[in-house]
C-alpha cells in the first residue's frame, strides 16, 4: 500500500525534516547583523556599518546556497518516491481480477486514482521543509524577541493564536468546497472528453445544442464551487494581512514607547519588527498548509482504499484444455436476466458459432470464459475444475489499441517472428494500412484509424498470440462483406487446429463450424 511506502521511507523523511529545522535556524543568522547595521548607521560609524553589511551579504548567500541544495536533494528524493508509487499502482492494477477491471473501466474509479496521484506530486517535500523552517523560525524568533521585550512577544502570540482559530474555521469550509470541487471537476473532465472523442457523432446527429447545454450546466456548477473556494481564500488572505498589520501596529506602539524612554534602541526596534515575521509567518504558514496536508492525507487514503478493494487474481492459468463446460450458469445485471441455467460443452478444436439477437448474451458467454464476468450462479469448468483460466486470445468490441505503431500494437513491442507477422498481415489485409501509417503512432484511442482498420489491427494482434482458444466477437465491424469473408476464410484455415468461438451478426457459412448455438 502507498501508506507503507511512506512508512518505509520515514527515517529519510524525518532526516529531511530535521535538516529543514537546522537550515531554517541558519537562515536567521543574517538577521542578527541587521540590528548592528542600523545601530552603526545611526551613530555614523561607516567602517563598522560596511563590515556588517558585507558579513550580512556573505552569510545570506551561503545559507541560501545550502537551502537550495537541501531543497534540490529533497525534490529528487520525492520524485524517486513518486516513481516507485506509480510503479506499484501499475503492478497492482495489472494483477487485478479481470472482472473487477471490467467494472472499474466502466466507472470513474481510475479517473479518481489519476487525480489523487496528481495531488501527491511535488507536495510532500515542500510541506516538510515549510514545517521545519516554520518551527525553527518560531522558536528562535521567540528567544530573540523575549530578550528585548517579553510583552511584545506575548502580544504577538496572543493575536496570532486568535487569528489562527478564526482562519482555521474559515479553512474548514474551504476543505468541504474543495472536495466537492474535485468531484465536479471530474464530471466536467469526463463530459469534456466525451465531447472531444464523440464530436463527429454529435455533429452527425445534430446534437450540438444538447451536449453544449449539458457541458455548460456541469461547468457552471464547477465555476460556482471554484468561486466559493476563491472567496474563502481571499477572505482568509485579507484576514491574515489585517491581523499581521495589527501585530505590526502593536509592536510599533509598544516599541516606540520604549525608544522614547530610552530603554530600546532604534536598531533593536527595527530588528524586533523584522523578527516579528519569524513568529507570525510560521503560525500562518502552518494554518495555510493544513489544507495541503489534509488533501495529501486524503489522497493517500483514497489510493490505498482503491487498491485494497481491487482484489488480486487467484486463479490457475492453463495453456491447454480438453473441455470447457458451462453448468447451470445464470448471470444477472440487477433485474436483467442475461443467462438462466445455461449449459454448454466446448471441446478442444471445436469451431463454435454463437447466434442471437443484440443483447441476448452472446458476448457474455465469451466473457465468462475469459473471467471478465463471474456467474451469478452455476459454474464454468475447465477440464472439470473450477477457478481455471485459459491462456486464450480474443477480439472484443471494447479492445484497446495503444498510441504506438501498428506493428507495436500487434506484437506489444516484443521481438517478433517476421515470417509469422508477414503471414498474419496478409491474412488481415493490413499491407496497405501499414504502407499508409508506416511506423507512426496511431494516436490516443487509435483516432487516426478507421473502424475497419482498427478491427484488422485487433484481429492481427489476436492471431499473433499463440493460444489454444481464440474468441472473435463481431470482427466484421467496419469491414465490407467481401473483405470480411476473405479475411474470415483465411483465418479459419490458419487456425484449423485451434478451438474457435465466433460471435457475429453477419451470416457466416455453417460449414466453417462444428457446432452452432442460438441464445
Automatic annotation (TrEMBL):
Natural source organism: Citroniella saccharovorans
GO molecular function: ABC-type oligopeptide transporter activity; ATP binding; ATP hydrolysis activity
Gene Ontology terms: cellular component: plasma membrane
One Pfam assignment: ABC_membrane
UniProt keyword Membrane, yes or no: yes
The name this protein goes by in its record: ABC transporter ATP-binding protein
Membrane topology: Multi-pass membrane protein
Localization, UniProt: Cell membrane
InterPro entries xref list: AAA+_ATPase (IPR003593), ABC1_TM_dom (IPR011527), ABC1_TM_sf (IPR036640), ABC_transporter-like_ATP-bd (IPR003439), ABC_transporter-like_CS (IPR017871), P-loop_NTPase (IPR027417), Type_1_exporter (IPR039421)
Membrane-spanning residues: 12-33, 53-73, 127-146, 152-171, 238-257, 263-287
Keywords assigned by UniProt, alphabetized: ATP-binding, Coiled coil, Membrane, Nucleotide-binding, Transmembrane, Transmembrane helix
Amino acid at each position: 500500500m502507498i501508506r507503507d511506502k511512506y512508512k518505509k521511507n520515514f527515517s529519510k523523511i524525518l532526516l529531511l525534516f530535521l535538516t529543514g529545522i537546522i537550515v531554517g535556524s541558519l537562515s536567521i543568522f543574517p538577521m542578527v547583523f541587521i540590528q548592528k547595521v542600523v545601530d552603526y548607521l545611526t551613530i555614523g560609524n561607516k567602517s563598522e556599518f560596511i563590515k556588517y553589511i558585507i558579513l550580512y551579504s556573505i552569510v545570506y548567500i551561503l545559507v541560501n546556497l545550502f537551502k537550495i541544495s537541501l531543497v534540490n536533494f529533497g525534490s529528487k528524493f520525492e520524485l524517486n518516491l513518486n516513481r516507485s508509487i506509480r510503479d506499484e499502482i501499475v503492478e497492482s492494477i495489472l494483477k487485478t481480477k479481470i472482472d473487477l477491471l471490467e467494472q472499474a473501466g466502466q466507472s470513474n474509479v481510475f479517473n479518481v486514482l489519476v487525480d489523487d496521484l496528481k495531488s501527491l506530486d511535488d507536495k510532500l517535500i515542500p510541506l516538510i521543509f515549510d514545517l521545519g523552517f516554520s518551527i525553527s523560525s518560531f522558536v528562535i524568533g521567540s528567544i530573540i524577541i523575549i530578550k528585548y521585550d517579553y510583552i511584545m512577544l506575548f502580544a504577538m502570540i496572543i493575536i496570532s493564536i486568535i487569528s489562527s482559530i478564526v482562519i482555521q474555521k474559515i479553512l474548514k469550509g474551504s476543505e468541504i468546497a474543495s472536495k466537492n470541487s474535485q468531484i465536479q471537476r471530474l464530471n466536467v473532465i469526463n463530459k469534456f472528453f466525451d465531447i472531444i472523442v464523440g464530436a463527429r457523432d454529435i455533429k452527425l446527429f445534430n446534437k450540438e445544442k444538447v451536449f453544449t447545454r449539458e457541458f455548460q450546466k456541469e461547468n457552471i456548477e464547477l465555476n460556482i464551487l471554484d468561486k466559493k473556494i476563491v472567496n474563502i481564500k481571499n477572505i482568509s488572505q485579507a484576514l491574515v494581512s489585517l491581523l499581521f498589520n495589527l501585530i505590526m501596529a502593536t509592536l510599533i506602539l509598544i516599541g516606540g514607547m520604549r525608544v522614547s524612554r530610552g530603554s530600546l534602541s532604534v536598531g533593536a526596534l527595527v530588528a524586533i519588527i523584522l523578527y516579528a515575521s519569524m513568529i507570525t509567518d510560521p503560525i500562518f504558514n502552518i494554518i495555510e498548509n493544513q489544507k495541503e496536508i489534509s488533501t495529501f492525507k486524503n489522497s493517500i487514503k483514497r489510493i490505498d482504499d482503491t487498491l485494497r478493494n481491487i482484489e488480486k487474481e487467484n486463479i490457475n492459468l492453463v495453456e491447454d484444455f480438453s473441455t470447457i463446460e458451462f453448468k447451470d450458469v445464470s448471470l444477472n445485471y440487477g433485474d436483467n436476466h442475461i443467462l438462466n441455467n445455461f449449459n454448454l460443452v466446448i471441446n478442444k478444436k471445436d469451431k463454435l458459432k454463437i447466434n442471437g439477437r443484440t443483447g441476448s448474451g452472446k458476448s457474455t458467454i465469451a466473457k465468462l470464459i475469459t473471467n471478465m464476468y463471474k456467474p451469478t450462479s452455476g459454474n464454468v469448468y475447465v477440464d472439470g475444475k473450477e477457478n481455471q483460466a485459459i491462456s486464450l486470445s480474443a477480439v472484443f468490441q471494447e479492445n484497446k489499441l495503444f498510441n504506438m505503431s501498428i506493428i507495436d500494437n500487434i506484437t506489444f513491442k516484443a521481438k517478433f517472428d517476421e515470417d509469422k507477422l508477414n503471414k498474419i498481415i496478409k491474412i488481415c489485409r493490413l499491407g496497405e494500412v501499414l504502407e499508409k501509417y508506416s511506423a507512426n503512432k496511431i494516436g490516443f484511442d487509435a483516432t487516426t484509424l478507421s473502424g475497419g482498420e482498427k478491427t484488422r489491427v485487433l484481429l492481427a494482434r489476436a492471431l499473433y498470440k499463440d493460444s489454444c482458444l481464440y474468441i472473435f466477437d463481431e470482427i466484421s465491424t467496419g469491414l465490407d462483406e467481401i473483405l470480411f469473408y476473405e479475411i474470415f476464410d483465411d483465418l479459419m484455415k490458419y487456425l484449423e487446429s485451434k478451438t474457435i468461438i465466433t460471435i457475429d451478426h453477419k451470416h457466416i457459412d455453417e460449414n466453417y463450424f462444428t457446432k452452432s448455438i442460438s441464445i
